[in-house]
Amino acid sequence: MIDPNTPDRHIFAFDLTEHEIRRRTEVLAALGDTWNPIEVMEGEAEAQRLLYSGLDAEQQATYDMLVAAGVLPPSGQA
Questions:
Q1: Binning pLDDT at 50, 70 and 90, where does residue 55 land?
Q2: What is the mean pLDDT of residues 64-71?
Q3: Rounded CA separation 70/74 (Å)
Q4: Which of 35, 13, 4, 60 is nearest to 72 (CA)?
Q5: How far is 63 from 53, CA to CA, in rounded Å?
Q6: Is the pTM of the predicted complex or chain greater than 0.70?
Q7: 75 with 49: CB under 8 angstroms?
Q8: What residues contact 22, with CB distance under 8 A and at least 6 apart?
Q9: pLDDT value at position 38?
């Protein structure tokens, strides 16, 4: 068994805070000034509604089962 206190063991610590701040800054710059997060979220919610609309009885039963099991969010909460 190797003793963790032996001098051949080295502990490395990396502070990625500066890198993460730079990465987030670059992401926001790439999105540009026209990016609207509220509009994006509304579009995602609409896509979710459309995806599960018009289901036949069997599909609706499966959807309801998945919602009850917590696999899918309830309608309107996506």
A1: very high
A2: 95
A3: 8
A4: 60
A5: 11
A6: no
A7: yes
A8: none
A9: 94
Buried-state track 37-49, b at ≥16 Cβ within 10 A, e below 16:
eeeeeeeeeeebe
Distance CA 28, CA 23 (A): 9
72, 74, 75, 76 from 68: Cα distances, Å: 8, 8, 11, 15
The pLDDT of residue 2 is 59
- Mean pLDDT, the chain, integer: 86
DSSP the chain: ---TTSTT--------HHHHHHHHHHHHHHH-TT--HHHHHHHHHHHHHHHTSS--HHHHHHHHHHHHTTSSPPTT--
Tens digits of per-residue pLDDT, 13-35?
888 899 999 999 999 999 998 98
Q: How far apart are CA 57 and CA 60, in angstroms?
A: 5
